[in-house]
Amino acid sequence: MDVFLTTAAMFADPYLIGVILIGTVGGVLVGAMPGLSSTMATALLLPFTLTMEPIPAIALLSALYCAGTFGGSITAILVNAPGAPPAAATAFDGYPLAQQGRAGLALGIATVSSTIGGIFSIIVLIVAAPMLARVAYDFGPPEYFALALFGLSMLASISGESAFKNLLGGAFGVLLATIGMDFTTGVDRFTFGFWELSEGVHFIPVMIGLFAGAEFLTQAGNLDRKMVRAAIDAVKLPSWPDFRGTLGTVARSCGIGAFIGLLPAEGGTVAAMIGYNEAKRWAKDKSKFGKGDLRGIAGPETANNAATGAAMVPTLALGIPGSATTAVILGALLVHGLRPGPHLFNETPTLLYGIFIAMLLANLMFMGLGLLGAKLFARVTLIPTRFLWPAVFILACIGSYALEQAIMDVWIMIIAGLAGYFLKRFGFSAAPIIMGLILGELVENSLKQSLIIFDHSWLGFLERPIVVVFILLTAISFAMPVIAGYRDRLRAKMPPSADIPGD
Amino acid sequence: MSEKPLRGGRAADDGSAARIPRDAIAGTGVLLFCLAAYLVTLTFKEAPPALAQNVQPATFPRLVLAVMAVLATVIIVMSFRLPDKQPKPIRLMVWPSAAVMVGFVIAFEILGILPAMMLLCFGLPMLWGEQRLYLIIPYAILFPLAIYGLFAVVLGVHFEPSPLVFW
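Structure tokens for the assembled complex are given below, as produced in the milestone run.
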């Protein structure tokens, strides 16, 4: 409690409040810009935090993360172009509502439900992270190996075109993590004579390249695209009857978002999609969905924000990212000399409470900003692509360079950008590759250490109960897409009358 | 190129010739990549057994490559059973923009960061069809200066002085 009060007192400092405000405003702006996501923004902003103290730095990125998730809803509602992937489901009902001249109400419900989801997720974070850390405190290399494997297996169920492609992307990321010097033998691998690669490939330039570089090329191919912005009235708080109609959806999506966020590798996009589907499934009258139903906005918006704090739980307690954006925050912790995992809770409790408070403040701030300034934030869509994307590209290059001040990192970013563009065309997502790259080192090192512990017997893994649980979960996780695919094919063969409504 | 979903490898309804499914191409590319990467692992130095502790430097990458090859094979097999989604043709502007990406890094090394940024901010909007010089010129001067000032002066990032330009 003393630590919490000491940390809370730190937030009386106008500098910290200012940093969180900047993060929140930046997050809403970035989230609102189609093509720019909070993941990309945190990756681009990370180099700016290098000279900051750890608490303001992580508070800035956390605020950006929360606000960026909300910001995507603004353009999803007004332009039908989700500013960020987690807001994709918001557009299904948000845009039709805006076309009916009720954009203000749509934005109001999005703001309120986002805030509720966000605050709920912070409660989950405060309660669950220390509990998980206590459990993980006794984890050894075999448990970490099984956990990392489980995290990678979860890639099968994240959004994307195909579970197998996500898994392949994850494996490719793990392979990228093997570039550089092998830590046990000191032998260089895949360095091709470049001494700069001996230390390995840092995931930040790869991430910036895969997200910003690839999107730069996508935007270059969409220069003739015109965005039509729906007219916006003043953003207004939903009336009590309107809000009461969404209460069940909001409560359900809080649980969905928090659960999805807690799972390694899953994030707001999956949570939002499930939040939307569940809102529709539970509704008695489904006819308005897709035509401007408020529950169609409240469901995904609550869920994607409820996933934010929850995704920080595995990131902070286990060092396993809960989503692509928390992967960057994990990287930021490492850059600032902090070791994510159970020890973080004993070594730097101030930082953890700082993150809790920063995220809480960010949620309250974006509620105010959303209600008062959504009309203004929507204007970011007016920035011409011809000026916006050269600027983003420059930030991507300098951000990659600034981390280690090495030109090799800029080349890595460019290669990742070009590769990311073509991979996207073939249906591969960037997020699994990043997850694989981050978890790759942990997978390899913990596997080697485990094999040494078990005297090179793979059966040794089965003697550890926690490992067995994770292996079972991994098997289920791998099997789910196969079962789902089989079920979908089976359903497709059935006559329409055989389909159970709402199932 | 048609965007109509097709059954993998089968002819479209309009009678156009059968085409290789997109995922089959992607999977084959991954298999070739795995083969190339495997050949590279053959060049890794062997570590003394006492140091390697029975796990040679090439063991783990080969394990990962094997997993990738299996997944790629599954994707190829499935591509002939699931509807095909051919990618849209690459728009013409993508190629020069990709060249600009590479050119910028070369300019960064040769000219230095500030001139490289100014060139990019001037050239890229024009390449992309922007004609309003009264917007391009201030943008090409002020934005790079602001970024340079922020990173080099405020954040203390060191940029190598260029061999051609003293920046």
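The radius of gyration of chain A is 22 Å. The beta strands of chain A are 180-181, 188-189. Further analysis is deferred to the final report.
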